[in-house]
Amino acid sequence: MKLELSIYARGLKNVAGFGKGTSDPFAIVTRLSVNENEKPEVIGKTEVVKNNLSPDFVKVFKLEYGLGTPQRIAINLFDEVRKKTNIGMGSAVFDVGELLGARGNTQIKKLKKGGQLAATVRKSEGSGILRLKMRGEKLKNTEGMFGKSDPFFELSRKVASTGGQTWDNVYRSAHIKNNLNPVWDEATVELSVLCGGNLDHPLSITVYDHEKSGKHVLMGHAETSVNGLLQAYKNGAARPMQLSKKGKTTGSLIITKAETEGIMDEPPTAQMAATSISPTAPVMSVPVTTATATGVAVGSAARSFASAPQSTSKQGLFVDYVSGGCELNVCVAIDFTGSNGDPRKAGTLHHMYPGERNSYQKAIAAIVSILLQYDSDKKIPVYGFGAKYNGVVRHCFQCGAFPEADGLKGIMDAYESTFSSGLIMSRPTVFNEVLKTAAAKTDKLFEDALKRGGQSYTILLIVTDGAVSDVNATAECLKEVSSSPMSVVIVGVGNADFRAMQFLDDFAQSSGTRDIAQFVAFNEHSHSSQSLTKATLEEIPEQMVGYFQAREIDPLPPIVRSEDSMSNIDSMEAEEEIDLSLDINEEEIVITGGGDNFINGFDAK
């Protein structure tokens, strides 16, 4: 899925030095390595925002993300120092999955050097670019009798949210000194960033008088759209756009060029639309852009997908549902049948090794750690099956002392405590009661969410050491629960013959029911947690979107998170400085050390 990353900061510490004014911050975004075979990669650099300790960067970075493929980015802030070494202002690391799962797709982090840094992601859609050139005419002066304003303009797109309408800056021009009839340089803006590919999407053009202090003065604004700009270009000087401020006209804007290029008329195929593309091979440096003067530049250090085909793909719609607050819930079911072996003996599948996790724990840690990014309360039911209590075989029982475990640690505690609960590992291997129990809980969560005006979807993770005893009965049960808003991920651990389990994976296609099951053999991916999570989770976005679309349930409006309240900071603990060394010069940005502190999903906490 294609995403756009935007950045802003608040209350940064001034590091310019005594008598040297206010810092001029810029940011560098780096994709960190996620395994020992990868190198960190510089994605790009923002523009420099002069004399501003609370900058809103207009530079937007393009990312590729798949649900089962972890991706972490580092954002380093610097004060630009001409002809000398730039001064660090702070840094933070963001997990793209956590950003998607966060309220408003935004996280705000406290910086160790002072201030806050926020990152936001949203779906990227649309193709092509807009080339725009305009001039102002008879702008109202805001400098008083003895000076003239220094006008610049910003382009903003309207963002709909549950809290109302807001404007998101996407382009900022250079300012023209002492001129009430300014002619600005041509602007080139990606349509995916400007309007999401919708040429009628509301836009705002706001003109400011530039001030060295960074406290720019509003001169006027006008609302339009890309199509409105194209029409204004046709109208020419005879019918200029009118700027207004507090209901009064403050000048005119004459569009001298407005052209679109590279818009793809043909949507991609369904197969292309539903496929998540992996990041390209990492490089150690990227060209530096001169975004200070011209805003977003096509072909800049941030990867541009302006010419790539876009559509309302199921991967893209997954982002829409999550952005609208759809809650992803998680349930876990663990196989305690006798075929796992005596857990007290080394070499058996449930044996607990000092300082090392067994296959059950590794599978749970890798998969659940990703899914929990989308589960706001982190409360997870943990079920067991295939064991005897008081001489009776139970095919679905609670693991742990509480109906729901608290986060990944709670799941691990519940799992470990089950072995001291008096169970006797038994047989046969039956999923049906677990499936029905999870489906019933899923249906209730869904109904409760609808009553609140929300949405809900559940992923059931089953970890087992062998094939079910009655494959046909299990297939029929999967068919029965396929009407619930749920996906089922089955991970087989150990060396059993899992061919019958693959039948369950393929059953939906042959039976014509909704596909909700995915089976993966752990041993085929035990070398890499990323390989495991990609294989197990890649179908979930399509399954979730398919469920909602079949019931004509549209995504809710995206939630926009307030940026100003201190209570919005995700952690009151300041972020530790990232171990990443960057050599920044006029031609390129080079990583000279660090950036490889990847996290193995099997060891997730």
Automatic annotation (TrEMBL):
<comment type="similarity">
    <text>Belongs to the copine family.</text>
</comment>
<dbReference type="InterPro" id="IPR036465">
    <property type="entry name" value="vWFA_dom_sf"/>
</dbReference>
<dbReference type="InterPro" id="IPR037768">
    <property type="entry name" value="C2B_Copine"/>
</dbReference>
<keyword id="KW-0677">Repeat</keyword>
<dbReference type="GO" id="GO:0071277">
    <property type="term" value="P:cellular response to calcium ion"/>
</dbReference>
<dbReference type="Pfam" id="PF07002">
    <property type="entry name" value="Copine"/>
</dbReference>
<feature type="domain" description="C2">
    <location>
        <begin position="1"/>
        <end position="109"/>
    </location>
</feature>
<dbReference type="InterPro" id="IPR035892">
    <property type="entry name" value="C2_domain_sf"/>
</dbReference>
<dbReference type="InterPro" id="IPR010734">
    <property type="entry name" value="Copine_C"/>
</dbReference>
<protein>
    <submittedName>
        <fullName>Copine-6</fullName>
    </submittedName>
</protein>
<dbReference type="InterPro" id="IPR002035">
    <property type="entry name" value="VWF_A"/>
</dbReference>
<dbReference type="Pfam" id="PF00168">
    <property type="entry name" value="C2"/>
</dbReference>
<feature type="domain" description="VWFA">
    <location>
        <begin position="329"/>
        <end position="544"/>
    </location>
</feature>
<dbReference type="GO" id="GO:0005886">
    <property type="term" value="C:plasma membrane"/>
</dbReference>
<dbReference type="GO" id="GO:0005544">
    <property type="term" value="F:calcium-dependent phospholipid binding"/>
</dbReference>
<dbReference type="InterPro" id="IPR045052">
    <property type="entry name" value="Copine"/>
</dbReference>
<feature type="domain" description="C2">
    <location>
        <begin position="113"/>
        <end position="241"/>
    </location>
</feature>
<dbReference type="InterPro" id="IPR000008">
    <property type="entry name" value="C2_dom"/>
</dbReference>
